[in-house]
Amino acid sequence: MYMTTDQIRQTYLDFFKAHGHTVVRSSSLVPHNDPTLLFTNAGMNQFKDIYLGKEKRPYLRATTAQKCVRAGGKQNDLENVGYTARHHTFFEMLGNFSFGDYFKKEAIYYAWTLLTEGFGLPKESLTVTVYDKDNEAYNIWKDVIGVPVDRIIRIGDNKGGAFNSDNFWQMGDTGPCGPCSEIFYDHGADILGGPPGSAEEDGDRFIEIWNIVFMQYNRKADGTFEKLGKPMIDNGLGLERIAAVLQGVHSNYDIDLFVALEKAVASLLNVSDLKDKSLRVISDHIRSCSFLIADGVLPSNEGRGYVLRRIIRRAVRHGRLLGAKEVFFYKLVDTLADLMGGAYPELIEQKELIKKTLKREEELFLNTLDRGLALLEAELKKLGGGKQIPGDVVFKLYDTYGFPTDLTQDVVRDRGYTIDMEGFDAEMAKQKALSKKNSKFDVDYNQELKLTEVTKFTGYDSLVADSVITGIYKDGEAVDSISTDERAVIVLNETPFYGEMGGQVGDIGIIQAGENTEFIVEDTKRVGKTIIHIGRVELGEFSKGARVKAIVDEENHKAIAAHHSATHLLDAALKKVLGDHVHQAGSLVEPDRLRFDFTHFEGITPQQLDEVEDLVNDAILSGLPITTEELPIAEAKARGAVATFGEKYGQTVRVVTMGDFSMELCGGTHLDNTAKAGPFRIKSESSVASGVRRIEATTGKVTMEDMRRSRGLLNRASQFFKSAPETLMERLEQQASEMKALRQALEKFKSEASMGEAKQILASAKTVDGLHDGALYKYAVTGADGQTVLKADPFAAHCETGPATASKVWSLEGYVWHDRSYLRRRAARDVYHAPMSIYEVHLGSWRRPETGLPWYRSVADELADYCREMRYTHVELLPVTEYPYEGSWGYQVTGYYAPTSRYGTPQDFMYFIDTLHRAGIGVIMDWVPAHFPKDAHGLARFDGTRLYECKDARMAEHPEWGTLIFDYAMPEVQSFLISSAMSFFDRYHIDGIRVDAVSSMLYLNYARRDGEWTPNRDGGSINLGAVAFLQKLNTAVLTAWPGCVTVAEESSAYPSVTKPPYDGGLGFSFKWDMGFMHDTLDYLELDPYFRKYHHDKLTFSMMYAFSENFILAFSHDEVVHGKKSMLDKMYGTYEQKFATLRALYGYQFAHPGKKLTFMGAELGQWHEWDFAGQLDWYLLENDANRRMQDFFRAVNRYYLTNPALWRIDFDWAGFEWLVADDNEDNTVVFVRRDGAGEELLVAVNFSPNGYRDYRFGVPPRKTWREELSTDDTAFGGTGEWRNEKPVRTQAIPSHGREQSIAITIPPLGAVILRGAGEYKKPKAKKSKAREELPA
Predict the structure, then answer these.
(1) Torsion of CA 482, 486, 487, 490, to 10 degrees
(2) 760 forms bridges with which residues in the sheet?
(3) Does residue 803 have a cis bond before it (omega within 30 degrees)?
(4) For residue 979, which of 1024, 1033, 1030 has the smallest C-alpha distance?
(5) Are 302 and 1249 in contact (CB under 8 A)?
(6) DSSP secondary structure, 1001-1012, as one string
(7) 625, 441, 385: which is closest to 73 by C-alpha?
(8) What is the pTM of this model?
(9) H helices of 632-687, where?
(10) Of 12, 741, 854, 1313, most Cβ neighbours within 10 A?
(11) What confidence tens digit (pLDDT) does each residue in 964-983 have?
């Protein structure tokens, strides 16, 4: 009897409906409240709580047509799809179920009757199997149904071990289980294959079409069985398999549904061979992908989303095999909706979302597909005559180019190659952990609360209820009573407390059993249909059966309701502004905020956010009535009520309506009028996954408090600028314009004033003997042109405080130093093999002094104490040589021998250095020989000619900075500058200089076009004079002052910056790694999804890491001029920014090279650096910022005390990659070594997905113990991603090593583990005869 798939489905449901079964709609592919499943993979999934005794329903018999996916987790058919006749990623399971009603006799009778009478299959073509110990089922088939004994086959424990059988079904290691009976269709003797249980059973002759599970036992954790009080039935009939039988074909891919899809693919891609297996693959995959997206699964790098991504990519690759030149997969959705939309209307409802998601995902994968295929072709050529692809190559394709292994198998299988799966097993295990990371297949169902009662919820109408305690549970066990200070779970027969569900958090409040008894409800949750109250006894005793009064905290409840109602308004507003493709993808409703995740494929503009916010507030101000009613689900949807992805709805649903603005299915609590929600404000908008955005918002009193804080800030700013708030922006713009004009006028005035001052001084000039300290002076310099100008003394030790520009007569005598022991230790220090954690500071804006002391002295003690507490080894000061213009931050120097007088005298500066030395803190000073300003009192045209400047007019001025350039070839200039540097080492005991803008000195054509520069004597662009100067500088300083350092801020690829001059180098001690700074920051500003395409930005630094002695710097230049603060640069939500910043600095401190961080990063500074203000120290009142500071303190301490992180910074002996190419996971793993046997393993994850059981090959250590995690709660992390116990090395090959470990890595986090002991490879055990080796 020929029947279409639609007819078969309907016949099945009608048959069981006629036999007293309730037709139950297919549940979502995303299991509801079941952490043990990745996807719905059987008809019984939605009834599991009934089997477990946790749920009761109004019917005892049910029948369904259930959509299922098997492509991840415990059951994974993906690799076989397209190569066999009956494997699919998506399939339909027809089922009938009995919950303690009928049992074996009726179940067998129904199956046989439907197959032979309803579907008209010949009885002689059917063979059945039973569990060999199930005599009851055997006798029913033989005596009641009349099946000949030669077609009843007993199947024993054929999988090894008791009850491990094809005919004994178990839900898991514990829980309901029982024997089963299967029905097979015999295609006839002309088809290869034997009956079930035979050696030829894998052939195509006998095909299983029906499975009847007799659930009659409960398996305990100890492995023993007990009989269920009411045995149950779970029947399953595969729709595709029975359709193949009824339509007379041997392959599921030849049934009507697949033929229609295959023809659509062939037409789309102009394929003539309708038997091409790629048509099968694509036809199967469009079903699973479309249904998964319709049920709320979106592509991502974890869990369900990762499996969906695998399926999409496999389909895309097969499209390429068929000749697809452009995106095509999404174009099949219309055909699928036409074929299956009648049975599953969600395909039609979500069609546009499905198409957009598939199109975008295919476009992203095409970026790497061709490169991956090219890599594979290259590897195949390397094999020569070999025919096995090495496992590490397969893993690289998997990890770097997004090639699932089945895709690689597809590519090589048709060409006669195989894959080294043993070499790939460890890597594959890691990726399976991704798809299973939220699964718990070892759940012991006997340990869960088995609550079957239905709690009456009264909280819609009242927040107080008189009730009776029906159950008390302590530590998972039922007890009769609890008393003061005991924690427990209380169950009431009715309650006004809302149990957490649908994103809304549970209520809090109290339960009273009299005047002096009180149970504080800290949370309320649901177990099945039972509402449980979690908390502790504040006073008195509570007993089962006692009458109590349940009282919900009204203020907290109303705040939750307000945010829940606002969530509905937000959902509706987003649809109006962005389009109907917007669907809820998750939510959280709390008393002080709401979080709403929704589908959308691009960032939302500020204008769109404003429009959404306005729409919500308009709806609130309109005072729309909020009404609720219960309706049949079909009627509710017909009215336009919005349902939520992944939610499980009954036949009757609760509909929440807000005027004509919003209508949604919702069981949560709400206000009765939108006006009571109060003002609504969007706090943030961000991306949380591919195609999923997140909005966080507040309403009511929370928003009002936030607005009050904002208003306070605005008022303070207005008072400061003496402007009304509404004109503040105008005032700021005006002030900026005025400051610009004043600077221009000042420059003009300085020039004119200098000339006038010169004439006055010349007129009264005379020789004066015995000038005292503090006397002001200038040099009157008359040039060859007869013009006389007043110049400050270039060699002055002290200067007049700006804006005045005279030099001061000053003696440097009188200060008594106290750092002799420090200097002695410094001279003996090997700086290259010592720790160096530098704190970069701008003195004027670190912290404003509150005392009347000179700035150097006021800041000295505080900064020294702070650096010692934070465990920094050095302070690097932005320039403190004298400079006239504050806005230059000190980088336009006029006094090369004088500490700036704005912070005190030379002796005050000596005190500053001395104080830091006594605290053990070194001082490095920014020094600027690259250029100098044009100020009239400075070095510019000192004698009326270019005395210090380059003589070539084209080369005398820096084209970008407007400053002048020294003539480094002149011996006098070299002497002037080198003496300047030496004077600070000699007079002020500094420990090092960082030479600014070295690149601009080295290249004659720096920032110049052709024709704007003169080549050197060799015709090249290198400034040979600058090279000679820098070599002399470094030789002089490092020879005279052992233990001191010179550092180059050099951003080009100029070679040998830190090699000695006698070896052709410039002779610097260290060089800033500008590439590391820019690459990592660029990488972390990206959406995590796109980071995998830029993984080289994370790892490229190690390509050149040991070519120079590098300092890894995150400097002041990266937190100004609109570049945002370090925290604000990080992509993501507020919490994600903090987590990413911790991970970044974790990576920096573990990466080879010395370390430098600019002030403010350790506070989690939100604003850019402001040289005119001070750091936002008030932020330390916030928990997140305070914990960020704790993190810096801890990571510095850990760095200093672990030589593996600094002893070998400039050689491969101190570093080894373990995982460098895991771009999909945004993760790197490496080892640092100290050369004395210590090894630290560092794993850094810049993905928002955490990884458990992340496996990789390791050096031969016995164990690895976690010592530092950036996700520690002490640092503001979750504390949920820990390697609590030492991780043991296992004999599992991975990444080219014989041994490996599997660790936990937190999302956006870094962990450091210490290796211990020596790993010894276990000896192979000899197998005994007839003993099966473990897999």
Answers:
(1) 20
(2) none
(3) yes
(4) 1033
(5) yes
(6) HHBTTTT--TTS
(7) 441
(8) 0.49
(9) 633-638
(10) 1313
(11) 999 999 999 999 999 999 99
